[in-house]
Amino acid sequence: MTRLEELWSIVSSIPRGKVAGYGDVGRAMKHPVSGVLIGKWMHQCPPDVPWWRVCGKNGDLLVGRKDPRVANLQADMLLQEGIELVDGRVGIEHFFVP
Asked: Which of 52, 49, 94 has its CA nearest to residue 71?
């Protein structure tokens, strides 16, 4: 399994209605990596992997730094899963550590 395949597997294991932080995902890898690197790799995410379930450690929708439209899409996807945002952030009660 490649590192990206491992990443997609971890992200796919995040349950519907939950999120994980980039750093949490990085620490869950067989050979842990930083959340920054996870963020870079996530730009290559296949369409069938629930990328919207990964956010910043404080619940921030960090994809908005590159493209606010993608942050809006992420927010919409999270809302469809029952995750409410407060001031544009996911509440800690929705966090899942893989």
From this structure: 52
Q: Specify whether domain 3-94 bears CATH 3.20.20.60.
A: no
Question: Are 59 and 91 contacting, i.e. CB atoms less than 8 angstroms apart?
Answer: yes
Q: pLDDT of 73-95, one tens digit each?
A: 999 999 999 999 999 999 988 89
Say if strands 85-86 and 54-55 run parallel, antiparallel, or are unpaired: unpaired
| pLDDT tens profile 17-54 | 999 999 999 999 999 999 999 999 999 999 999 999 99
Nearest Cα to Cα of residue 36 among 65, 15, 16: 65
Using H for helix, E for strand and C for coil, what is the string for the chain? CCHHHHHHHHHHCCCCCCEEEHHHHHHHCCCCCCHHHHHHHHCCCCCCCCHHHEECCCCECHHHHCCHHHHHHHHHHHHHCCCCEECCEECHHHECCC
